[in-house]
Amino acid sequence: MCHHPSEYVMADLSPAEPTIVRMDICAIPFENSYFDTVIANHVLEHVVDDAKAISEITRVLRPRGHAILQTPFSRKLSTTLEIDAIASPTARLQLYGQEDHVRLFGADLVSRIEANGLTSRVEQHADILPDIEVERYGVNPTLAFQAGPNTRIDIGYEYFHDYRTSDRGVPADGDRPIKGFDRTFFGDPEDSHSKANVNIGTFSVEHELADGLTLKNHTQFADYDKFYQNIYPGSYSSATGLVTLGAYNNRNNRQNLFSQTDLVWETRIGGIDQTLLFGFEFGRQKSRNQRKTGTFLNGNTTPISDATVDKDVSFASSASDANNRTRATVAAVYVQDQIRPTDWLEIVAGLRFDSFKLSVNDLRPAGEDFNRRDELWSPRFGLILKPRDNLSIYTSYSRSYLPQSGDQFSGLTSTTADLKPERFDNYEIGAKWAPIDGLLATAAIYQLDRTNTRATDPLTQQTVLTGAQRSKGLELGLERSISDRWQVSAGYSWQKAEITKTTASAPAGRDVPLVPKHSFSLWNRYDVSDTLGLGLGVIARSKSYASISNNVKLPGYARVDAAAYYKLMRGIEAQINVENIFGADYFPTAHSDNNIAPGGPRAVKAQLRFGF
Question: Residue 59 and residue 106: Cα distance in Å, rounded?
Fold first, then answer.
């Protein structure tokens, strides 16, 4: 992302930290176009319905967003190896390379991802904005060994460095994004940057106590050193032709230690196949946060014709800027049972209890120290019916929580309402149907209720509570192999997301920002020969709002993309992507009413993939 993210959301089916949302990747409890970036490392090989998982990732990604999907695969396989009848850990180890994998992706991995709405490409920031600078590198050595016939130990270390220019986009002109400045950097690119240095150490052990009974532990220590600074557009006046700038920086140093232990028992009770899970976790996290507001020494306005500036700015803490130390601890216990009474019925039920404590040492002159403890119950239930081999129907309910006021804890006060965690209640019912060979249809209806929700105030840029909101929608998907060489995938979603509880910042009935009511995607891939393939598709969105103020609209748009794939030789493939063929002018996302990200212009990307 070029702009600084206003929210980080970490998620896992079995969370190991208090700040991690418990989430099923096949039912992500967030609205359409919510995230700029989704990272799912070593997930798709564990998910029964990988097409649904990729479809969900596509749904919650904003246009021009990025998904990093890391998974084992073999180029020696022309198609993915996936046998539904293989369920035993031993057989999965032999076929897929690990006991809990459900498939081994083959050379069709990219086409499977693209069939569900994503496009594979390499993108350089400098191609879009010449003032953008990016520096990223990392190392991740791991050591795995058998400490006996039934015990495996994994030890890992990761270092990651990221430095980049921070771009907050363009301001609004009235109730629309300003036009004609898509390739202009508003602010000072030399003094707008973010930096992160991350060190993570992991230790995992897995021991088979008996046939079907396994004990697992995963422990992680992490140290994060992050800094962000930005000089950005605060507003624009068409009457004067002047852009008003704002500036701030933010430092966050964090250390955490978490340990999770699971006992998994695959057995038959009363003649019924079951997978029982019992687990517990403990963790702590310490943070040091400090924000400083920028003061412009020679004025904070600039003509719209000279929006890229070199300004002298001094940074100092204001009365409202965060300056604190925080300490969070969590203790949790959970249990889940996955029951398969017949071939056509599967039931999943679980319950988790979290005891979460947060202490804040406010270092501001008028600050105060305070703490809060929350005891949270999170149920989960799912039902899968397979009345026919080509038809499955599912329904699910889940509840999860997220500690309030973001990763900086800058919005916390001694007021209980500010400290109350955000709650997610997700309801969904759907179906997957293959009426004929080569045709797959999916449908889902869902409702997500969020209480004590957060958003960015369009005036102050601070985190505010919007009370409660409800999102409900319909998703339809269709995948069709018209022939051995021609594959088509299409998707449509209707969604309505609105504020349901009035506060000073967001009255009831106001639309949730960045949620288009209608979204549509269509992608075709045709293999002209065994070595050459062509792709053509369209992505369309209806209008949405830039913030909870609902004062600025992001216009609806349609963008056409194309691709070509060519196998040069065994193990070497070339790919060319042409994005936004017709040069559509659009604005896919925004940080606030005056920090609106323009979509990329027509761009041609090329890449080579090597397999060994």
Answer: 24
Tokens of 23: 């989430």
Residue 220 β-bridge partners? 202, 258
What are the tokens at 410?
């800058």
Q: What is the pLDDT of residue 3?
A: 40
Mean of the per-residue pLDDT values of the chain? 84
pLDDT beyond 80 at 373:
yes
Give dist(CA 426, CA 400) in Å, integer. Answer: 9
What pLDDT score does 203 carry? 95
Cross-strand partners of 347: 339, 383
Half-sphere exposure of 45 (CA within 13 A, CB side): 24
How many CA atoms, within 13 angstroms, populate the side-chain half-sphere of residue 347? 8
Average pLDDT over residues 18-43: 76
Q: Note the pLDDT tens digit of each residue in 247-306.
A: 999 999 999 999 999 999 999 988 899 999 999 999 999 999 999 999 999 899 999 999
Question: β-strand 35-41 against 61-70: which pairing, if any?
Answer: parallel
What does DSSP say about strands 463-465 and 468-481: parallel, antiparallel, or unpaired? Answer: unpaired
d(CA 410, CA 290): 9
Question: In sequence order, what are the residues at sequence separation of 6 or more whose Cβ sits closer than 8 angstroms to the Cβ of residue 292?
Answer: 248, 249, 250, 315, 316, 317, 318, 321
- The answer to whether the pTM exceeds 0.85 is no
Given a contact cutoff of 8 angstroms between Cβ atoms, the answer to whether 325 and 287 are in contact is yes
Tokens 């693209």 belong to which residue? 114
Domains of the chain: 10-610 (2.40.170.20)
| Residue 253 contacts residue 224 (beta carbons within 8 Å) | yes
Closest C-alpha among 185, 36, 184, 183 to residue 602? 183
pLDDT value at position 80?
A: 79
Count of Cβ atoms closer than 10 Å to residue 581 Cβ: 15
For residue 417, CA distances in Å to 228, 252, 411, 512, 534 come to: 28, 24, 11, 21, 54
Contact call for residues 530 and 519 (beta carbons, < 8 A): no
